[in-house]
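Deliverable D4.2, example record:
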Amino acid sequence: VTNGGKTTLAEKLKKMLPNCDIISQDDFFKPESEVETDERGFKLYDVLDALYMDEMVKSIRNWMKNPARSGVVTEKPQNTCGDLKNTDDVYILIVEGFLLYNYEPLNELWNRRFFLTLPYEECKRRRSTRVYQPADTPGYFDGHVWPMYLKYKNELEENASNVVYLDGTKSQEELLSCVYSDIIKELKKLRE
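Output generated by the structure prediction step:
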């Protein structure tokens, strides 16, 4: 969901996990001139066609081929517990975005999937506090953003498995703790 806390969560996880890097879907938006406009004059940014998805897949696959040379900073994570012993050879890529699980070429790549949700009122409130370039036009949230979120969320619920749904109204600390714990469990499984 837009303004659900995806980027904030990803950045906090990056600081806690070994050899961790982030690829953000927002970095793959097409220029405004290439984004379609509907009959109401809304720029259709909340659809897959507004993004260079093939380039995103290519970036992820390039990272996967050689994560050690991907430019990941290999600082020790800001974690004092013993969860991450002997992880020098562990590389983690967090891919964050709003239309990730609806793009079939990506679905074979995920180890874990998390999906942040927000109720309509909270999402609209958060969206209204953000400045976008280009700016949201009047009625854009109700006329395009929210309907597209519901459409893609419904598609996800029908077609995807192994998705962990997270309540975006929970505190950043609760969300971080939940996802971090899940990643640590996954790392332990992979190392067995």
